[in-house]
Design a protein that fits this description.
The complex is a heterodimer of chains A (744) and B (494). Chain A is an alpha+beta fold and 744 residues long. Chain A folds into three domains: 2-110 and 158-251, Aldehyde Oxidoreductase, domain 3 (Alpha-Beta Complex), CATH 3.90.1170; 258-428 and 579-740, Aldehyde Oxidoreductase, domain 4, CATH 3.30.365; 434-571, Aldehyde Oxidoreductase, domain 4 (2-Layer Sandwich), CATH 3.30.365.10. Chain A has 18 helices and 31 strands. In chain A, a hairpin with a 5-residue loop joins strand 11 and strand 12. Chain A is globular and about 80 Å long. By secondary structure, chain B is of the alpha+beta class. Chain B folds into four domains: 2-88 and 175-249, Ubiquitin-like (UB roll); 97-169, Orthogonal Bundle (DNA polymerase, domain 1); 254-367, 2-Layer Sandwich (Uridine Diphospho-n-acetylenolpyruvylglucosamine Reductase, domain 3), CATH 3.30.465.10; 373-485, Enolase-like, domain 1, CATH 3.30.390. Chain B has helices spanning 23-29, 97-104, 114-127, 133-139, 151-162, 171-174, 176-186, 211-220, 235-238, 274-284, 288-293, 298-303, 306-311, 319-325, 343-346, 422-431, 437-448, 459-477, and strands spanning 2-5, 12-13, 48-57, 60-69, 82-84, 192-198, 201-207, 225-227, 246-249, 259-261, 265-269, 329-334, 337-342, 347-349, 352-353, 360-367, 373-380, 391-400, 403-412, 419-420. In chain B, strands 2-1-5-3-4 form a five-stranded mixed sheet. Classes of the chains: A alpha+beta (744), B alpha+beta (494).
C-alpha cells in the first residue's frame, strides 16, 4: 500500500461536506504580557467563520502530567511561536491567510532562553533529581587523576514527515469522534473530554497510522485535537487542523538539549573511581514529560559502566521556549553521551585506547553489577557484544591503519571510535506499564486484532499480528489489524518507551490464549478427547491426530455457541521504584548494542565524512529480523543526525530560527555511510519472559550513533593530541572547525 | 488547459483554477492523495512526481521524464505535459519494478515519504541504463526519509536495476508512441493568456511562447511577476501565503530555452534549467560536475533556471559566484531594446538588481576558457547534499607556466549579494605560494566583507573558512592533493 500511495494518512481521508479548517496565529515574541489581540482583520478575511482567543475557552489548560499548557496563550506569552488565537475557515489556506492578520500587542519581557540563563536565574520547573551511590566527592578527592569539563548537548527536532493533524467529527448528543495523528489516543481522548467537560466515554479517538512519530506525537498531538473539538462543539461541524511545517516546528517540543558539567576521578589505568555529573535540561515553558526524561538521562549516565561512587544531578530548567518533549531515547541518549564523552577524555588524558578504558570499567556479570539506582543487572552481555564486534569490525587492525593514514596525511585526519549501549526497558512511570488487546475471530475464520499500540512505521501492527497468527497457527494474512481506537481498548498507554511490542504483544497473546482455552474446552467435550488438547498449526486444528481446517473448526465452534473473542491484559512484572530515594528496579530488562565508526576530517575546513559503521545489536530472539534491522538502521541514522548535522538555533531573544528543512538538516541519502554493516546478535534470547523472548528495539539503536560523534572527537584528537576536550554536540562543521583551531 | 495524467491517453482538464494553485494542491484537491505534503517548500521530496516532456534528440522525438517538487510548482506550468504520480505506476495489481523492490527491501517504514522515493526511483529507472551509488544518491538527493536510514532504499534501487533486464517494459515504455502522439496534440497551443476571476479580483496568467510576445506582455504589465521554475519565488505562495495577481511564465519561451556557442563564448538562455545546461558547462569546466551535484536536489535542478538563480538575486545562490569568477555577462531586454552588462555589476544590494520594470534577463554569456585557466569551486554547507551554502567560493585562475597571473574570485554567502572579492584577488596573486596566505586572505576578506551570523554559519566561521578555502585552492594549484570530502570514497580501495 505504501509504495502505491494508497495507504491513507489523516490528511488523505475525504472529509465530510462542510468540514471547516483551523489555523493558529502565533506569537512573535518569546516572553511578554498580552495587552491586546486584534482579531478584526482576521475575522473579516475570506472564508473565515470564527476567531477565538484564550478567553473564549472555558477549560483552557491541558498537559500530560500538570495541566500547565494553555491551548491558547492567556494574558502572557511564554515562548516564540506560542498559539495566541485560532482561526476557523472554509479552507486550510483561508485559515492560514487569516492567521497572519491577527495582530497582538505584547509588552515584551526579558526572556530566559538558554540553559545557562535558567541555571543563573534558578528558573526551574521542579526540584533537582539526584541519583547517587557511594561518596563521589571523597572518591574524586582520593583519586590519582581528575578531569573536569562541560559538554553542551543539542536538542533535536522530530521532523516526522507527516506533520501534526487532527479531525473532530461531532456525532450525536455530546459525542465526538476524533481522528488524531498521535502515539497516545487515550491521552487525546481524556484531554478532549476535559476541555469539552464531557465524560471520557463521549469521545472516541482513532489513529490508523502516523507518518512518523519518534515521541513527537506522544503528548504534542493533544493541542490540535482539542482546538478542533472546541470548534466542533461550537459549530456542530467537522473540523480539521493540519499544522504547516513551520508552525509544527515552532509550536511543538523537541528533544531536550542538555549541558553536562562533570568532575571525575580515575586511576592511571583509567578506572573510574568517582563522578560528579550535573545534567541540566532545557525543558521549555511547561513540565510535559520532562521529569521522566531527566530521570531517564540520570538512569543512563552510567551506560555500561560500573561507577562505585556517583552523584548524578538533574536540573529541569524552565525556559521561554516550546515545551520539550519525548524523542526516541527519552533523555537516555543525553545521559549516555555525557558518560561516553567522559570515558573518551579519560582515555585521551592517559594516552590509552578508549576501548581498553571502556572495557575495564564495564559492568560484570556477578560482581560490579549494581547501578547507581540499585538495580542489579541480571542480563549483562555487553562484554560478549564488545568482543564480537571488535573482532567482526577489525577494530584493532583499523586503529593501526588510521594511525598510518594520519601520519601520511597533513590535511586529512581520520578518527575511529567504539561505543557500547545499555538501555533500560520499561516506562519509568510505573502505571504506564500496562496494555490491553482485543481479538475476535469471525465465523469464516478471519481474525480481527485491536490493541492499544499505535502504528507509526515501526512495524508494531505486523509484529503483534504475527504473535496472534502464531498462537492460532495460521498465516498472518488471516489477521487484520484495524485502527487503534479508544472505543475498542480503553485506558491505553502511549506507544513509547520502545514498549509497543513487548506489552501489546503480550496482551494480544493473552487474548489468544483465552480464546484458545474456550476452543479447547469445546473440542474436548465435542470430540470426547479426554485429557488430550487440540493443537493449532499450519492453518489446521489438530484434534486427536485428525486435522480440521481452521476456518471449518471455527465455524463449528460458532454453531456450538463458543465465545470467539476475548480481551487480553498485560502488566510488566518485577518493576518497582522509590521516587524519593531514587532507588529500585525501574527496568524489566536491558537491551545492549555496540558500534564502531570511522570518519575522515578535513582539517582546513572542519568538514568530515562518516566512512564506515559496524553495528552489533541485541534484540533478544527477534520477532521479525527485517523489521528489527530497519529499526536499528533507522535509529542509528537518526542518532547520527542528532549528533552531526541537526542543529537547532535560537536568536538571543528566543526566536527559533531553524523552522524548516532548508535550515534544519536531517540526514540525506548521501550521508549514509558507504560501509554500513548491521548485525543482530544471533542465538540469544531475553532472559526475562517477554513475548517470544524478544527485546524492545525502538529506542536503543539511536544511541549507537554516539560512536560517530566520538570518532569525530577522536579525529580532532588525532590532529592535535593536546586537544582532549572541547567538542560539543552536534558536531557541525563549524563547531569542528573551531574545536580544531582551539589551541591555535 | 490540459495535461496528460498517469496512464490515460486522453488529456485531463486542469480546470478554471487560480493561477497561484500548486500542482500538489491540484492533485490532492482532485483525490490524488498519494502525493504528500511534507514541507511545502521543495525541501523534503514527499510531494515528488514525474513530469514527461517531448524532446527531440538527433531528430528523434521522445519523452523525457523528470522529477518535480509538486509543492512549489504551479499547476499551470504543466500545461501540455505529462504528469505521473504514484497512483500511475502499477498496472492493476502488478507493481512497478521500483515498487516491488521497495517492498522486497523493506524500503518503507511509516510510508509517508515512500511515494516520493518511488517516483524518484521511477524517473531514474527510465533515464538510466545502469546504476551505481553516486547515481542513486543524486537521483534521491531530494527525498528525505526519517525512518529507514536510507540503507534499504539504496538496496531497492540496486535491485530494481539488477532485475531491469528480466522485467517486461513498463506501461510508459510500452506505450511511448501513443503518449508522444497525445502530447504532440496537446503542445499545439502557442501563447497562453488567462484571466481567473475570484469574486471581484482578476488574477492573470501569461505563458508566451516567443520572446517578442514576452516583452510585449511585460511592457504592458511592468508589475507582473516573472516566474521561471518558481523553485524560489513560489515559496512566497506556500510559505508567506502571498497571492500573485499577475504571473508571467517564461517556461515556454523558445528563445530563452536555447544554448548557443561561438568560438569565444557560450550563450545560455535565461530559462535553461541546470540539468539542461550541465553538459555544456561540464564540457568546458569539468570541475563543475561535482559542484553542480551539490548545487541542489535533482528535482530542483531539473527545473530551476540559471536566469532565475541570477534574477532573484539571492546572496546564497550558488551559480552567480561561479559566473562572476568566469567574467560572465548578461543580455537584458526591455521591449525592443537590449543591453549587455557584466554580471558582477548586476547586483546592487540585497535582492536588488539593475533590472528595470518590464526588463528581463534574456541570456547569460560566458567566455570560453583557455587551456591555462583553472576554475576552482568550493561550497561549505551544513550537509553535503541538498543544502544552501554558508559560503560558496569560485576562483578562476589564469596561469602561465603554472604561475597564476590573473584571478577572479566570486563569493556567495559573504554579503547581501553575490560578490567579487577584488582585494582578495590581489592578495592571492601576491601570496598564493607563501605561508602567509591564510592570514593575508583573512585580512583581505575581513576588509572586504561583513558577513552575517545566521542559522547557516557565524560571521567568524564564514570569514575563517573562506580564508581556509583560499589556502585549499592554492594547494590545488600546486598539485598538492586535498580532498573534497563531499565526494570522498574509499569503496574502490577497500
Amino acid at each position: 500500500m505504501h509504495v502505491q500511495g494508497s495507504a491513507n494518512y489523516i490528511d488523505d481521508v475525504a472529509v465530510p461536506d462542510g468540514t471547516l479548517h483551523v489555523a493558529f496565529a502565533l506569537s512573535n515574541v518569546a516572553h511578554g504580557k498580552i495587552k491586546s489581540i486584534d482579531i478584526d482583520a482576521a475575522r473579516n478575511s475570506d472564508g473565515v467563520h470564527s476567531v477565538i482567543i484564550a478567553e473564549d475557552i472555558e477549560n483552557l489548560s491541558i498537559g500530560p502530567i500538570r495541566h500547565d499548557e494553555p491551548i491558547l496563550a492567556s494574558k502572557e506569552v511564554v515562548f516564540f511561536g506560542q498559539a495566541i488565537a485560532a482561526i476557523l475557515a472554509d479552507s486550510h489556506n483561508q485559515a492560514k491567510k487569516a492567521a497572519l492578520l491577527v495582530k497582538a500587542e505584547i509588552e515584551e519581557f526579558e526572556s530566559i532562553v538558554t540553559i545557562d540563563q535558567a541555571m543563573k536565574s534558578k528558573s526551574f520547573l521542579d526540584d533537582p533529581i539526584i541519583v547517587s551511590t557511594g561518596d563521589s566527592k571523597k572518591a574524586i578527592k582520593k583519586a590519582k587523576n581528575t578531569l573536569t569539563g562541560s559538554l553542551s548537548i543539542g536538542g533535536q527536532e522530530h521532523y516526522y514527515l507527516e506533520g501534526q493533524v487532527a479531525i473532530s467529527i461531532p456525532t450525536e448528543g455530546n459525542e465526538m469522534v476524533v481522528h488524531s495523528s498521535t502515539q497516545n489516543p487515550t491521552e487525546v481522548q481524556h484531554l478532549v473530554a476535559h476541555v469539552l467537560s464531557v465524560p471520557q466515554n463521549a469521545i472516541e479517538v482513532i489513529t490508523r497510522r502516523m507518518g512518523g512519530g519518534f515521541g513527537g506525537k506522544e503528548t504534542d498531538s493533544s493541542q490540535l485535537a482539542c482546538i478542533c473539538a472546541i470548534f466542533s462543539e461550537k459549530t456542530n461541524k467537522p473540523v480539521k487542523a493540519r499544522l504547516p511545517r513551520k508552525d509544527d516546528i515552532l509550536l511543538t517540543g523537541k528533544r531536550h538539549d542538555f549541558v553536562a558539567n562533570y568532575e571525575v576521578g580515575y586511576s592511571d589505568e583509567g578506572l573510574i573511581e568517582g563522578i560528579n555529573l550535573e545534567l541540566a535540561a532545557r525543558c521549555g515553558y511547561s513540565l510535559d514529560l520532562s521529569m521522566a526524561i531527566v530521570s531517564r538521562a540520570l538512569f543512563h549516565a552510567d551506560n555500561a559502566y560500573h561507577i562505585p561512587n556517583a552523584t548524578f544531578t538533574g536540573y529541569l530548567c524552565k525556559t521561554n521556549t516550546a515545551s520539550n518533549t519525548a524523542f526516541r531515547g527519552f533523555g537516555g541518549p543525553q545521559g549516555m553521551l555525557a558518560i561516553e564523552n567522559i570515558v573518551e577524555e579519560i582515555a585521551n588524558s592517559i594516552g590509552r585506547d578508549p576501548l581498553e578504558v571502556r572495557r575495564i570499567n564495564y559492568y560484570q556479570k556477578d560482581t560490579n553489577n549494581v547501578t547507581p539506582y540499585d538495580q542489579v543487572i541480571e542480563d549483562n552481555i555487553i562484554n560478549e557484544i564488545t568482543n564480537e564486534l571488535i573482532e567482526d569490525s577489525n577494530y584493532l587492525t583499523r586503529r593501526k591503519k588510521v594511525e598510518k593514514f594520519n601520519k601520511e596525511n597533513k590535511y586529512l585526519k581520520k578518527g575511529l571510535a567504539f561505543s557500547p549501549v545499555k538501555f533500560g526497558i520499561s516506562f519509568t512511570t510505573q502505571f504506564l506499564n500496562q496494555a490491553g488487546a482485543l481479538v475476535s475471530i469471525y465465523k469464516d475464520g478471519s481474525i480481527h486484532l485491536n490493541h492499544g499500540g499505535t502504528e507509526m512505521g515501526q512495524g508494531l501492527f505486523i509484529k503483534v499480528a504475527q504473535v496472534v497468527a502464531h498462537e492460532f497457527g495460521v498465516d498472518i494474512s488471516r489477521v487484520k489489524v484495524s485502527a487503534t481506537s479508544t472505543a475498542k481498548v480503553p485506558n491505553t498507554s502511549p506507544t513509547a518507551a520502545s514498549s509497543g511490542s513487548d506489552m501489546n504483544g503480550m496482551a494480544a497473546r493473552e487474548a489468544c490464549l483465552r480464546i484458545k482455552n474456550n476452543l479447547n474446552n469445546f473440542a474436548k467435550e465435542f470430540f470426547d478427547l479426554g485429557e488430550n488438547n487440540i493443537k493449532f498449526q499450519d492453518s489446521f486444528v489438530v484434534i486427536n491426530k485428525k486435522q480440521m481446517p481452521f476456518n471449518e473448526f471455527i465455524s463449528l465452534a460458532y454453531l456450538n455457541r463458543v465465545e470467539l473473542f476475548s480481551n487480553g491484559f498485560y502488566k510488566t512484572p518485577k518493576i518497582h521504584f522509590d521516587a524519593v530515594k531514587q532507588k529500585g528496579h525501574p527496568f524489566f530488562y536491558y537491551s545492549y548494542g555496540a558500534c564502531v565508526s570511522e570518519v575522515v576530517l578535513d582539517c582546513l575546513t572542519g568538514e568530515y565524512k562518516i566512512l564506515a559503521v559496524d553495528i552489533l545489536h541485541d534484540v533478544g530472539a527477534s520477532l521479525n529480523p527485517a523489521i528489527d534491522t530497519g529499526q536499528i538502521v533507522g535509529g542509528f541514522i537518526q542518532g547520527m543526525g542528532w549528533l552531526c548535522s541537526e542543529e537547532l538555533k535560537w536568536s538571543d531573544s528566543g526566536a527559533l530560527l531553524t523552522t524548516g528543512a532548508s535550515t534544519y538538516k536531517i540526514p540525506a541519502i548521501g550521508d549514509t555511510p558507504e560501509h554500513f554493516e548491521v548485525k543482530i546478535k544471533p542465538n540469544i534470547s531475553n532472559h526475562e519472559n517477554t513475548i517470544h523472548k524478544s527485546k524492545a528495539v525502538g529506542e536503543p539503536p539511536l544511541m549507537l550513533a554516539i560512536s560517530t560523534w566520538l570518532a569525530i572527537k577522536n579525529a580532532i584528537y588525532n590532529a592535535d593530541k593536546d586537544n582532549i576536550t572541547g567538542l560539543d554536540a552536534p558536531a557541525s562543521f563549524e563547531q569542528v572547525f573551531f574545536s580544531l583551531n582551539k589551541n591555535s | 488547459m490540459k495535461i496528460l495524467l498517469n496512464q490515460s491517453f486522453k488529456a485531463v482538464e486542469l480546470g478554471d483554477i487560480n493561477p497561484n494553485t500548486t500542482v500538489l494542491e491540484w492533485l490532492r484537491g482532485n483525490q490524488f492523495v498519494g502525493t504528500k505534503e511534507g514541507c511545502a517548500s521543495g525541501d523534503c521530496g514527499a510531494c515528488t512526481a514525474v513530469v514527461g516532456e517531448l524532446s527531440s534528440i538527433n531528430n528523434k522525438t521522445e519523452i523525457q521524464y523528470k522529477t518535480i517538487n509538486t509543492c512549489i510548482a504551479l499547476a499551470y506550468s504543466l500545461i501540455g505535459k505529462h504528469l505521473i504520480t504514484v497512483e500511475g505506476l502499477s498496472e492493476g495489481n502488478k507493481l512497478h519494478p521500483v515498487q516491488k523492490a521497495m517492498v522486497a527491501e523493506n524500503g518503507s517504514q511509516c510510508g509517508f515519504c515512500t511515494p516520493g522515493f518511488v517516483m524518484s526511483l521511477f524517473a531514474m529507472y527510465h533515464n538510466e541504463k545502469t546504476v551505481n551509488l553516486p547515481k542513486i544518491n543524486e537521483a534521491l538527493s531530494g527525498n528525505l526519509c526519517r525512518c529507514t536510514g536510507y540503507k534499504p532504499i539504496i538496496s531497492a534501487a540496486f535491485i530494481a536495476f539488477s532485475e531491469k533486464k528480466q522485467e517486461s517494459l513498463d506501461f510508459y515504455e510500452r506505450n511511448q508512441a501513443q503518449l508522444i502522439e497525445s502530447l504532440t496534440q496537446l503542445s499545439g497551443q502557442k501563447n497562453i493568456s488567462l484571466n481567473f476571476k475570484d469574486g471581484n479580483k482578476n488574477i492573470l496568467f501569461d505563458a508566451p511562447s516567443d520572446i517578442a510576445t514576452l516583452s510585449q506582455v511585460l511592457s504592458k504589465n511592468p508589475t507582473a511577476n516573472i516566474v521561471a521554475a518558481g523553485t524560489d519565488l513560489n515559496l512566497e505562495i506556500t510559505q508567506s501565503m502571498k497571492e500573485f495577481s499577475h504571473i508571467v511564465s517564461v517556461n515556454r519561451v523558445s528563445e530563452l530555452k536555447q544554448i548557443d556557442e561561438t568560438d569565444t563564448e557560450i550563450k545560455i538562455g535565461a530559462a535553461v534549467s541546470y540539468e539542461e545546461a550541465k553538459s555544456i558547462l561540464v564540457k568546458y569546466w569539468p570541475d563543475l560536475d561535482s559542484f553542480l551535484e551539490r548545487f541542489a536536489s535533482l528535482p530542483i535542478k531539473n527545473w530551476a533556471t540559471i536566469g532565475g538563480n541570477i534574477a532573484n538575486a539571492s546572496p546564497i545562490g550558488d551559480m552567480p559566484p561561479v559566473l562572476i569568477a568566469l567574467e560572465s555577462k548578461l543580455n537584458l531586454r526591455k521591449g525592443d531594446s537590449s543591453r549587455t552588462i557584466m554580471l558582477e555589476d548586476f547586483f546592487i544590494s540585497y535582492k536588488e538588481t539593475l533590472l528595470e520594470p518590464s526588463e528581463f534577463i534574456e541570456s547569460i554569456l560566458i567566455p570560453k576558457p583557455s587551456n591555462q585557466d583553472r576554475l576552482i569551486t568550493h561550497k561549505i554547507s551544513k550537509r553535503f547534499e541538498d543544502d544552501i551554502s554558508a559560503v560558496c567560493m569560485a576562483m578562476n585562475v589564469k596561469s602561465k607556466e603554472s604561475i597564476p597571473h590573473s584571478v577572479k574570485i566570486g563569493f556567495g554567502g559573504m554579503s547581501g549579494i553575490p560578490q567579487r572579492a577584488i582585494e582578495l584577488e590581489k592578495v592571492f596573486l601576491n601570496n598564493w605560494d607563501k605561508d602567509a596566505l591564510v592570514s593575508a586572505a583573512y585580512e583581505a576578506l575581513d576588509n572586504e566583507f561583513t558577513p552575517f551570523s545566521d542559522v547557516r554559519a557565524s560571521s567568524e566561521y564564514r570569514l575563517k573558512v573562506s580564508a581556509a578555502l583560499v589556502k585549499k585552492s592554492s594547494l590545488m594549484l600546486k598539485g598538492i592533493p586535498v580532498e573534497d570530502l563531499a565526494h570522498y570514497s574509499e569503496l574502490q580501495s577497500s
